Amino acid sequence: MNVSFLGGPSPQRGVGVVAPFDFALDRELWRWVPDEVSLHMTRTPYVPVEVSLDLARLVSEHETLSEAVRTLTAIAPEVVAYACTSGSFVGGIAGERAMCEAMTRAGAVPSVTTSGALLEALAELGARRVALVTPYTVSVTRSLEEYVAEAGVLVTGCAFMGLTRHIWKVKYREVADMARSAVRPGTDALFISCTNLPTYDVIPQLEAELRIPVISANQVTMWAALRRLGTRAVGPYQALTDPAARCGPVLPEVPDEEQQEGWT
After folding, report:
1. Tens of pLDDT along 187-203?
2. Which of 205, 56, 198, 216 is nearest to 132 (CA)?
């Protein structure tokens, strides 16, 4: 069959993504990406360390990030995103900015990190009082609280799991239970931390129940990266990505067969 008249595929725009070696949720990142954008993934080298502050420091070293970004330059992404929350908040606000500068130098393109995107998203939503949900240990969770406080945001409540591995296996029901326990009256928004924690489908459910914006690590990362491209993340019924939802979240109808196991 002669298909020359089709003119080839549509032009593609690229987002380079640097993730820690144990990142397991590639398909979740893709769910926020419009059809004309492609994700180009790379990972930091493996180190035999469980999720901890030590691991956060190891996977965010400038030399490691620069080398990861250089592996993406051949495919010419227009922006690079570092998809790791703890790795980008462990050094505080100054550390996060230095990471972006290191990645931009290595790839000559704009760079964002998950924790930088978190602060950008809170500003977009006008949220100054935030509840936190994390799968981390107490020490990693406290580091996140310190990062948010450094930005002048008040933490109104927090819930954490104490996990050091296999975070991508957490069910939506567990995420929802933690969210309910973390949110206090007067909270402006809820942030669900860790790019290895599944959140896409639970966000609109929680927004409808809690009546506040719910943002997550993977969501803010993709939102901020795509914003640099002048395009929008795909996330219906989510306040950050769907401005109509900010007027009051609407619970979407989800057929039974499409619900994730463990979530009702």
Report:
1. 999 999 999 999 999 99
2. 216
